[in-house]
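Fresh eyes needed here. I'd like your take on this protein's tokenised backbone:
***
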Amino acid sequence: MKFGQYLDASRIIDVRSSSFEGALRELILACNLDGNISLERTVSAIVEREMTVTTCIGHGVAVPHMRLNLNIPITLAFGRCKNGLFLNASDEYEDVRYVVLMLLSNSERAYLNVLTDIVHTLQNSSVIESFNRAQSLEELKGRVLNVLASQRRKFQESEDANKFFLEETSKLAHASMCSSALIFGGTNLDGIDFQEIFGDLKIVIAAPKSAEFDSLSEVHFISPLLSPNSTHWLYEFRSAIILGLSRGVIRGDEKVCCIGSNSQDGTFDTVFIVDVKREFCPIFTSKTQFLMQNIKPEVMERILSIASEISVEGREGKSVGCLFVIGDVEKIKKFSKPLVLNPFFGYGETERNILSPFMDETVKEFSTIDGAFVIRGDGIIESAGTLISTPEHNIVMPSGFGTRHAAAAAISWAAECVAIVVSQSTHRVTLFQKGQMLQVVKKG
């Protein structure tokens, strides 16, 4: 996503205040908002929320945000705090060196997506190290705008090689009766005219949309769960197709031409054809529909993303296994009971929405608790540490799968929901629907 449209150099400042409240005042003033917006009320509201749910995301970065009665959708301000900040004697803010203030219009609907993209961008340690090396404010402004505008250099040699590969692949795709081309964006795609190369084929790019893609029209984007350079890249294509099916971008009756790179320089070198019906039909909810209607595609995408990160990272250096159950909570409750006190009890729906980027670390922390996460189809986490107990069923699990996978298969059959399992021993992420299983991610 291109953040440069929300931020300009005048709103990148060196914060003088040593307090979190003072930093917010300076950043809000830098935004030059409408005079009807109360500075003190805005600061107070942000601080009050901060005391409930911190917006510190690690690497010395905090991303406070607030909805206001603004005429513009989103405004960003970036502050450098060289000596850290203090907030009610909390040690966490002493390490904060950068505060990114995000102010949103009350009518803006896509703020969670924008907020998530910003958080993920600033959780990259190399990005923060680049900011740390900036000596002057002008140098910092250049680096911040460069990162948030997602500016990339063009590499003509790889461009030419990729264009030739895509042109030849297009011939194969048409000969194989494909209707879509799924392209992994781990390469330099700038300047490639996909419509001209692939003609009537639908173009799906597995990459976060950024500035390099701004000129592309009639192209669909899917954020990959892990790096496209993973050694198990076949699982990456499978996960991308699952996300495409969830969103309705890819249909169940299609053949998809998958194109990717298994090389260090990002040059395209891999192509294969996937018959979606043959590969994925056993877990469809109907002949044409992959995902249940009460489950939002973005919720499925976020849970798969978190599960994939848990499978790779574990927790505190140890492998972690966990189970997510998503769907109609009232039906799921018939087959579940608490193992421990529910850590999400008493919090408002905003605070326990899986779509909030600040829920990632919370979910990962509670993933070490025995039992399942129970999540509504709209993303609200109902409970963690939940025991799944279903009646006898005829589902036969392959050899090597344990009780967590058996519980996932059973609940997906009994309660007509989706269950996602992270295996502690193999690190694989497996999706269950209608009692059927599909491996999505393998660590590598």
